[in-house]
Every structure is written in structure tokens, then in C-alpha cells.
Amino acid sequence: MNERGSVAAGETPLAAVLIRRIAATGPISVRAYMEICLSDPEHGYYRTQPAIGAAADFITAPEISQIFGELLGLWSAVVWQQMGAPSPFRLVEIGPGRGTMMADALRAAQRVPGFADAVRVILVEPSPVLQTAQRRKLEATTAQVEWVEDMARVAPGPTVLLANEFFDAIPMTQLIRCEDGWRERMVALDQAAALSFAVDRSLWRGALPEAAATASTGSVLELRDLSGLSQTLQRMADGGPLAALFIDYGHEATGFGDTLQAVRRHRSESVLASPGAADLTAMVDFEAAERCFASDRIAVEPLSTQAEFLGALGIAERASRLMTANPSRAGEIEAAVARLMSPHGMGTRFKVLGVRSSQVPGLPGFARR
Ligand code: SAH
Q1: CA separation for the pair 96, 141 (Å, rounded)
Q2: Could you please report the per-residue DSSP string of 193-208?
Q3: I need a surface site. Which of 132, 259, 289, 333 has the fewest CB within 10 A?
Q4: Angle at 300 between CA 34 and CA 348, to 5 degrees
Q5: How far apart are CA 200 and CA 221, in angstroms?
Q6: How far is ligand 1, taken at its centre, from the CA of residue 236, in Å?
Q7: Distance from Cα 213 to the centre of ligand 1, integer Å
Q8: CB neighbours of 159 closer than 8 A, spacing ≥ 6?
């Protein structure tokens, strides 16, 4: 925005909306900023951008290799068998992006006898743009597919649930340890009326994890509210066998640090630079997620890295079969698998959280305690 109050070239339409709103009613929390940037019905990132894929802003595991979705499909079929092969049962995916993972998963799982007849697919996706992309991707499938906007709308019943890179898109609160206590990090306006970070005027009165007690001044703590999802999981576990996989990049244990990042066209940029036009994500605190989900109804598997998990599901065998069947693509397949498994990249940065209702046996692919 320039001195006359008009929006400068390069600023996004959402930047103008936010600047006007903050000027009128005061700073907003980082959580509200993230929520608006990602999900504003008119200008939100997931509502307007094709977002995911080699040509877009970032690439995800299912877009790197078909093997990713295929292995998760086979995993789902094995878990369904462990549940006693209920028919019908629901295969639910939260945040399916372009629908690639579900298409690959169904293609592989439908070869398991009885699976195709039993499966009902539910895709949880609030973005109409992405729903359309998913519809297109799944046109050829024979499975019954239904879309809902919110996980809370999924009725109880036998369920296998998958989510890749869904947690990291859930808006989170950032707290900063100040001399006198924790304060929420806010988005305000600087003297030039541009978006800038600030801290809340009052101290944070919400709950804090135990680790917060050891923080030094200046530490940043990120809190993601998964209680709504947890309630849904508990309710589902009451209504039938439930098994769920959440794959995301994040930490095993609660720690300190600012991990909020903006990515636009495969480059990271300032979080405040282009609201609505860049993807905003933050690392997942898996310890917090585990604590939130575990109950007498829900058991949590020991956290696994993506490399350990895909390795246990037989990624090497599947890759070599695919390479034999497609010799001209062997190099490409090998490179894609190496990327998913990379010890300094996706293979270890991404973790797999498995949860199940207590009546379901231990899930495949996880180390036994
Ligand atoms: N799983 C996909 C896409 C990851 S991007 C992949 O791996 O390629 C995050 C996805 O979560 C998008 O589809 C986005 O629209 C969706 N999403 C964001 N907020 C959501 C919410 N509250 N409920 C369900 N999906 C959501």
C-alpha cells in the first residue's frame, strides 16, 4: 500500500483486504492470518490456486510417485482385512489435493478380493476448486465416491482414514516468550501501513504444554488445535473399527522455534509477502498430536519416519517390479523413490502417525513396542 492508501503493484487482493481490516479493527492473530490466507472463500490459497504439483507451488509425495498411493492403498486393504473385512466400509481421505493418492490407492487395493465391493470412498475437501480436480482424477474409478466439506460430517462406521500433508495446513497459534510471560504473535500494520508481526498486548491465558516451563525469553511455541479432529476420531472409534494414518513433516517432540513458512512456485518467501497467493504451512508437533488423540478408545502406534514406514510396506520390491514393467521409465522411478526415502529429506522429515480404535489389532508398517 502506498501513502495514498492504494494497493501497490505486486500486492495480492487479500493483502488489501487484510490491511483494511487490521486498520479498522486492530491486529489479528497468526492463527487467524493463516486461516484467512488458506481458506478465505474468495481469495484463500486453497480456494483459488491449483497449488499442488510439479508445475505449481509445491510437490507432495503422491505427486512424486504413484508408488506412494499404491502402498497406502494396499495398507488400507490389509487393515480392512484385519477388521474382519466389513462390507460396506469407508475409505476416507482428508485434504486429498488433486486426488492422485486416492486414485493410486484404489487402483492397487481393488485387486484385493472383496475390496472393490466393500469400499465407499469419502473425500473431505472444503475447496471447490480442488473438489473439481479430484472429481476429474477419479472419473474412471468404479468405487462410489462422495465429498464432504468437514470431517465432522462423516457418520460413524468401519473406517480407514488417510491424510497426507493435512495437519501442516491447519492454522496454528504462535506464542512468544516475553520477559513477563507468553504472548500471542499477531499480524499488525507498521508505520508504512504494511503487514508486520507484533505481539499481543495481553498475556496468553490459554493452556500451555509442560515444555513451556523451560523456555527462555524470545522462544517461539507453536500450538495447533487438533481437538475437533480428535473428538471426531473418538466418536468414530465408538461407532466401529477405525484405523487412521497421518503423514506430515514435523517433530517427534514438542520444541521451540518459528516454523511458519510461505512457499510460492517452489521458492520460500516472507510469510507476509503475498497472502492468499502462497502456501502457508508449519511443522507438525507429533507429540502434541499423540497426546491429543490417545484415549481409552484410541491407541497410538509408535511414530515412524516416512522412510521406515514405506520401507516396511515394501517400497523397494514394488519399485523394482514397476521398473521391470516399464524399463524406459526405470531412471525416473528410481529417482522418485530415492526422493521419498531420502535420509536427509522427505524420508526422515516426514513422519507417519498411526492411530486405531482399541479393538483393531496393531497396524501394519509400525514397529511393535
Ligand atoms: N494430500 C494432498 C494435498 C495436501 S495440501 C497431497 O498430498 O498432495 C492440503 C489439502 O488439505 C488440500 O486439499 C486442502 O484443500 C485441504 N484442506 C485444507 N484445510 C482443510 C480442512 N479444514 N479440512 C479438510 N481438508 C482441508
Answers
A1: 15
A2: S-EEEEE-SSPP-S--
A3: 132
A4: 65
A5: 14
A6: 20
A7: 33
A8: 89, 90, 91, 92, 236, 240, 241, 242, 243, 244
User: With contact defined as beta carbons under 8 Å apart, do 309 and 365 qualify?
Assistant: yes
CA of 167 relative to ligand 1 center, distance in Å: 8
User: Average pLDDT over the chain, rounded to whole?
Assistant: 93
Question: For residues 81 and 312, is the Cβ–Cβ distance under 8 A?
Answer: no
Ligand 1 geometric centre to CA of 95 (Å) = 3
Q: Tens of pLDDT along 225-235?
A: 999 999 999 99
Q: Per residue in 57-97, pLDDT tens?
A: 678 999 999 999 999 999 999 999 999 999 999 999 999 99
Does ligand 1 come within 6 angstroms of the Cβ of 126? Answer: yes
Per-residue pLDDT averaged across 339-352, rounded?
96
Task: Report the SS3 class of residue 267.
Answer: strand
- Average confidence (pLDDT) over 129-149: 94
CB-facing half-sphere around the CA of 269: CA atoms within 13 A: 15
Residue 268 neighbours by CB under 8 Å, 6+ apart: 261, 262
